[in-house]
């Protein structure tokens, strides 16, 4: 049974940490203008709630997403804008590669999925060339996650949101970059790419006081 990544609340020292996933404050993307976007679906027999996450194509046989989206049988859907009106192209994931140092505190929250994924109507997105590249400040996040607070329903159409990264882009020592404000990703968009100048520099991970993205240049090896 397909299910949504459940909302997780951790109250520690007054800080609320949640699974990332909603794009609040976004707008509908131009249909099929993000050909790297992939819809990830998990099947777990003991969970009865349907749902999905997002990830993105980085090579013809690999997609990148958040490690906390792992679990159960995984399939991906490509070439979709409106999930209620388009079938897209489904592919089963053959193997998942979690970062070996991923933990429940969302450190190293990054994962690669391997399978026969590439199709005629999708295109991989580029990655940074070196680990020393500075992340541009003005970026874009896209996804099908929730758009209205307190309404547990994903968007049927792909949403875009412009994000401006904090001045202190490396917001911690855990290979992360951050943005601030009420708008941004939260539930249902885990694994979304943070795209800056047409390159994927981050992966939507978690939210505390900030929106947190894994810093892809640190994981190029």
Molecular structure report:
The chain has 221 residues and is an all-beta fold. It has no helices and 16 strands. The strands form two sheets. A seven-stranded antiparallel β-sheet has the order 8-7-4-5-6-10-9, with no helix packed on it. A six-stranded antiparallel barrel has the order 11-12-13-16-15-14. It is globular. The N and C termini lie far apart (35 Å). Mean pLDDT is 79; it is low at 1-22.
Low-confidence stretches: 1-22
| Chain-averaged pLDDT | 79
H and E string: EEEEEEEEEEEEEEEE
The general outline is globular
Number of helices: 0
Structural class by secondary-structure content = mainly beta
Approximately how much beta-strand content do the residues carry?
35-45%
How much helix, percentage-wise, in residues?
under 10%
End-to-end CA span: 35 Å
How many strands, what sense, and barrel or not for the largest sheet? 7 strands, antiparallel
Total strand segments: 16
């Amino acid at each position: 049974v397909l299910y949504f990544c459940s909302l997780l609340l951790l109250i520690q020292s007054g800080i609320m940490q949640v699974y990332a996933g909603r794009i609040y404050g976004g707008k509908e993307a131009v249909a099929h203008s993000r050909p790297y976007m992939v819809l990830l679906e998990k099947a777990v027999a003991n969970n009865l709630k349907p749902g999905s996450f997002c990830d993105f194509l980085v090579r013809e046989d690999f997609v990148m997403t958040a490690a906390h989206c792992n679990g159960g049988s995984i399939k991906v859907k490509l070439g979709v804008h409106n999930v209620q009106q388009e079938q897209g192209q489904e592919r089963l994931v053959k193997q998942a590669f979690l970062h070996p140092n991923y933990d429940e505190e969302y450190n190293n929250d990054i994962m690669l999925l391997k399978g026969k994924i590439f199709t005629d109507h999708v295109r991989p997105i580029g990655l940074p060339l070196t680990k020393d590249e500075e992340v541009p400040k003005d970026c874009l996040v896209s996804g099908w996650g929730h758009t209205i607070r307190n309404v547990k329903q994903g968007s049927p159409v792909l949403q875009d949101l412009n994000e401006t990264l904090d001045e202190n882009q490396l917001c911690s020592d855990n290979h992360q970059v951050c943005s601030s404000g009420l708008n941004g990703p939260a539930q249902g968009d885990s694994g979304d790419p943070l795209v800056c100048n047409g390159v994927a520099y981050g992966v939507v991970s978690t939210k505390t006081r900030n929106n947190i993205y894994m810093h892809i240049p640190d994981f190029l090896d």
